[in-house]
Each structure stands twice: as structure tokens, then as C-alpha cells.
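Exercise: predict the fold of this chain.
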Amino acid sequence: MLKLSEEHLQIIRTHAESTYPQECCGILLGHHKTVVEVKPTENVWGIEVGEGYSRTRRYAIAPKVLLETQKEARDKGISIIGIYHSHPDNPAIPSEYDHMGAWQEYSYIIASVQKGQVSDIKSWVLDEKSQFQEESIL
């Protein structure tokens, strides 16, 4: 079960709606399964990372941003515990691409944005067989 506040969910909703029709992305900071900070980041797909598909179908967080965030979190006594991103005009279900880049210890929040409005938010974790399982959000 992933614990985050309504304020954290609102940050994700606002970010997802403001970047539509492109995917948004960001970092979840906290300890264990408790989020204490949500950090929106720029989707650098096709700018710094990746080619082919557009940002309407892919996302990437700049490696430098991940490293800086990891250091900032460590200085605050917390850790990166997950990643969030949006699926424009698609369900909040992990894609094959999402699965390829996932790490077992992270939670992955996906916000489904339908015609510019968030319609669903779900969290996912990899099980011991590296299959995504839905995780409750509290």
C-alpha cells in the first residue's frame, strides 16, 4: 500500500493535465511506502533520451535530475521510492515500455488523462516474478 496525501495526488493531477497531450513524469520521495514529497520533472524523451516515439507515448527523466534528486533526498533523510507519469488518452495500466524500465523496489503511479482531464490514478509494483501488480493508494 502506497501512502500519499490528497495534496500529493493533486500535484500529479495538475502536472498530468498541464502537459496533456504529452506524458508528464516526476519522482516520488519518502520512506518505505510513505510519500513525503512529489517532484514534477520535465519529460526529456526525444531531447536527452530516446528516439522514435513522441512524448505523447513515452517519457524519460533526465539522468542528471535523478542523480541530483537522489542526493537531495539523502540530505533530507529520505529516498526515491517511486516514479509517476501519465498516459494521455490511455488507461492507467503499465505499458510494455513501462515494464522494461521498472525497478522492483519502486512504486509506479500512472495517471490516465482523457481529453485533458485526469480520469484515474493507479499505483503499480513489480512482484517477485517481475510482473506488475496493482498497489492500493491510501
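Check your answer against the key: The beta strands are 25-31, 34-41, 79-88, 107-114, 117-126, 132-135.
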